[in-house]
DNA sequence: ACCTGAACACCGTTCAAGT
DNA sequence: ACCTGAACACCGTTCAAGT
């Protein structure tokens, strides 16, 4: 769904940009639950202006993350052509982990947007899932991954591990990802 | 660490009990982030009384969940003697899922308590992990589960799946648990 | 020893008034 | 068309005053 961008008044555009910058800084520092009042303050803008541009916290997050999550889709398509499909999937999975852990709390926000078409992040989640779907299908055709896993399963599992990683040291997060991804290999199906 | 219970004044004890009941109701209805003021109101008690008995939200949660989580440990020991160690582990895992999903938000609270000795829920998490450890070791000796998984890994993974399940339908949660548990079987080790 | 609730601090969100 | 900030609602937490 392409949104047509009407031109913004110069001051509005400047405020919009400032809000994005301030939001990124706040999210990076305090996680996705950072105070929106502080974001507005840092941007040098009234709180009402923040709400005018971004009616919800998710809308703000979407704007801040848009390029990053779109890049994940691009990366999926690049990897699709490369060498071993199994390896490509693993590589993409690590990219996904990295993107989902840029802000503390992001995994939770994404997870709650995944099946909620009303969320401003739903579209972004969809694109991620589609990218994963393609790589997954390719790995399944190559017999590298059990064939009853879906892109949604994969994305949710990685998200869940990323979330768990917020409460562990990095080593543990890495271990958990390995356990899960090893476990998705073909031949592991029991039930 | 056994805490010696000094006898409470009759009114204090009554308030304590009322708070537990009200808290359970509130957590069940609104999740672990339920308003503590409302808990106090429902219990017919001043907010200060709630804080006197339970200095933190976690302390209140611990009191409400104590028996339930202790039961999980008991269940682990019962299952330890029963038939197939692999099946016993799976069975216990399902119990764990059920316990961790009684309140929305509980998985998150437990996860953040898991490696934090300062949390009032740390002890409860420890007991759960120990129960899992025993069943896991037994399943590993039987060659049913890959031998590089720890009880902490298992508990964290199940917790992560339970958390994911809060944002999915029950079928999906069940699927994810199956994928993870199948994946822990012996012979899946790659890296 | 225990309880109460006012007081303080903080935040999200809306909207009337301004430019 | 856009911005501002006061106003409202709500919550967590502490603590002086009471019994």
TrEMBL record, chains A, B:
Membrane-crossing residue ranges in chain numbering: none
A Pfam family assignment: TetR_N
Molecular function in Gene Ontology: DNA-binding transcription factor activity; transcription cis-regulatory region binding
Annotated ranges, domain HTH tetR-type: 13-72
Name of the protein in question: AcrR family transcriptional regulator
Recorded superkingdom: Bacteria
Keywords from the UniProt entry: DNA-binding, Transcription, Transcription regulation
Organism (species): Streptosporangium saharense
DNA-binding region(s) from the entry: 35-54
């Amino acid at each position: 769904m392409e949104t047509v961008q009407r031109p913004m008044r110069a001051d509005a555009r400047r405020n919009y940009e400032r809000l994005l910058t301030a939001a990124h800084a706040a999210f990076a520092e305090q996680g996705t639950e950072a105070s929106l009042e502080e974001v507005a303050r840092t941007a040098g803008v009234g709180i009402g202006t923040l709400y005018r541009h971004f009616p919800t916290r998710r809308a703000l997050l979407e704007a801040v993350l848009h390029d990053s999550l779109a890049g994940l889709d691009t990366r999926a398509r690049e990897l699709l052509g490369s060498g071993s499909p199994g390896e490509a999937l693993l590589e993409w999975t690590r990219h996904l982990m990295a993107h989902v852990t840029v802000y503390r709390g992001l995994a939770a926000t994404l997870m709650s947007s995944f099946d909620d078409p009303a969320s401003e992040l739903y579209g972004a989640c969809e694109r991620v899932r589609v990218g994963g779907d393609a790589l997954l299908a390719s790995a399944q055709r190559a017999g590298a991954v059990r064939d009853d896993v879906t892109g949604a399963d994969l994305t949710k599992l990685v998200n869940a591990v990323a979330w768990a990683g917020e409460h562990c040291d990095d080593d543990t997060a890495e271990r958990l990802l390995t356990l899960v991804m090893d476990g998705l290999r073909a031949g592991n199906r029991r039930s």
